[in-house]
Design a protein that fits this description.
With 173 residues, the protein is mostly helical. 77% of the residues lie in helices and 0% in strands. It is globular and about 65 Å long. The relative contact order is 0.07. The mean pLDDT is 81.
């Protein structure tokens, strides 16, 4: 009885996270105002973090919140605030007609191409990967992969500084 209730709660949580992802992504794509579109992106990222929790990966969920919502989203927000974005620009028009059909086909194409191989060659449940603990991930990041870890932080710093430089140069003109 308790297992059945937990299973229904998991399905309900899946549905809620799925609605958050779909709603957030729709707002991110369809909204004219960049700040509102950005809020849709953040909602989508929160939904993905919830999906990681359902997959019993709390470390990935926390990293999703910390890295994407905490760092990358802040970087995107600075770029939006520094850029001269108006809601009446060239891209502000509603997308109907041929553009909408092309976008829908582009979205459906990966589904049409990837679904048949998945059904022909289903994933094997016998080969499960080894469980990697958070301590092992930390040792890897601070040991073998420390250079890559630090290079990513430098790349993000240079990208943010470049964005500020470009925005300042634009405002002077």
């Amino acid at each position: 009885m308790t297992d059945t209730i937990m299973e229904y709660l998991a399905y309900a949580a899946y549905g809620v996270y799925l609605l958050i992802i779909i709603g957030g992504s729709a707002v991110a794509v369809l909204e004219k105002n960049l700040v509102r579109a950005f809020i849709g992106l953040i909602a989508t990222l929160f939904g993905v973090a919830g999906m990681y929790l359902l997959l019993q990966s709390p470390f990935l969920a926390f990293m999703q919140l910390l890295i994407y919502i905490g760092a990358v989203a802040v970087l995107i927000f600075f770029a939006i605030m520094l850029a001269d974005s108006r809601s009446d620009g060239d891209e502000a028009g509603l997308v109907f007609g041929k553009k909408f059909i092309r976008a829908a086909l582009a979205g459906l194409l990966p589904i049409l191409l990837l679904t048949p191989p998945i059904f022909v060659h289903p994933a094997s449940t016998e080969l499960l990967p080894d469980v990697v603990t958070v301590a092992e991930i930390g040792k890897g990041l601070m040991g073998e992969y420390v250079l890559a870890f630090e290079l990513i932080s430098i790349i993000l710093l240079v990208a943010m500084a470049g964005g500020v430089f470009l925005a300042m140069d634009r405002r002077k003109k």
